[in-house]
Specification:
Blueprint lengths: L5 H24 L6 H14 L3 E2 L11 E5 L2 E3 L13 E10 L2 E10 L5 H19 L7 H12 L5 E2 L5 E3 L6 E5 L16 E4 L2 E3 L5 E3 L6 E3 L5 E3 L2 E6 L2 E4 L6 E2 L3
Antiparallel strand pairs: 1-4, 2-4, 3-12, 4-5, 6-10, 7-8, 7-9, 9-14, 10-13, 11-12, 14-15, 15-16
Helix pairs in contact: 1-2, 3-4
The protein binds magnesium ion.
């Protein structure tokens, strides 16, 4: 994995702030009746207006600037004509490149009134992300991150997706190392200042099993139950993890 300088991190923070702006705008646009393609247009315009490039557009042929993953879709949904309905949950994954450096982040939200089960899944998955971020301190290991995430899911019996995981990030959207959402505390690669990783838990209301649709992209739960996904890009500094994909970078205190 490549180590980053302060100057590199500064560029990643600019990319990250653009991703945060995309999240805020798409969150506002994601009302009942809004189509996935409309949300993609909102995101695309913001990324272009910020003199960035969308990380996802053209990535291995991906045709859009964001992934839109409603309900039983876990990740990598391709924006299409599907229109949001009251009671849906929707995951949005967005990436931006500023001067060659990436930011990558995802969130899941309720559309209108959702079931208590759906609301809890969203809340707990976001909590899993922040538990993973808090564990991403220099001197800790990737197993500490993964085990912190899966420990949040365990009391709820959620399936923790294993086939799709977080990743190193920098001048490539996906770099070494793999960042699983499971693992054993004290095991795995040791984190050091200068690393950057995207942490992205996916929790399922049912089992962890996944399937891929015929489009080759869309990943769904095998049992058809809901899935939620949250992600931030995290810069490892000597002071602790700094989340770059927020409007203002956030140091997570130990
Ligand atoms: Mg990612």
């Amino acid at each position: 994995m490549t180590m980053k300088s302060e100057a590199d991190f500064a560029k990643m923070k600019i990319a990250g702030a653009v991703v945060a702006e995309v999240h805020a705008a798409v969150r506002e646009a994601a009302v009942p009746g809004a189509s996935m393609l409309e949300l993609d247009e909102v995101a695309h315009r913001i990324i272009r207006d910020a003199d960035c490039r969308p990380s996802f557009l053209g990535y291995h042929g991906f045709p859009a600037s964001i992934c839109t993953s409603p309900n039983e879709v876990i990740v990598h949904g391709i924006p299409d004509g599907y229109k949001l309905r009251d009671g849906d949950i929707i995951s949005i994954d967005a990436g931006a490149i500023y001067d060659g450096w990436h930011g990558d982040a995802a969130f899941t939200m309720a559309v209108g009134e959702v079931s208590p089960d759906a609301a809890q899944l969203i809340e707990v998955t976001e909590r899993g992300l922040w538990a993973g971020i808090a564990a991403a301190r220099p001197g800790n290991r990737l197993g500490d991150v993964g085990s912190a995430i899966s420990a949040v899911a365990a009391p709820y019996g959620y399936g923790v997706v294993r086939e799709y995981i977080g990743h190193g990030i920098g001048q490539q959207m996906h770099e070494a190392p793999d960042v699983p959402n499971y693992g054993r505390a004290g095991k795995g690669l040791k984190l050091k200042a200068g690393m950057a990783i995207a942490i992205e838990p996916m929790f399922n209301l049912g089992t962890a099993e996944t399937s891929v649709l015929d489009d080759g992209w869309t990943v769904i739960t095998q049992d058809g139950k809901l899935s939620a996904h949250f992600e931030h890009t995290v810069l490892i500094t000597k002071d602790g993890p700094v989340v770059s994909t927020l409007a203002e970078p956030k140091l997570v205190a130990g």
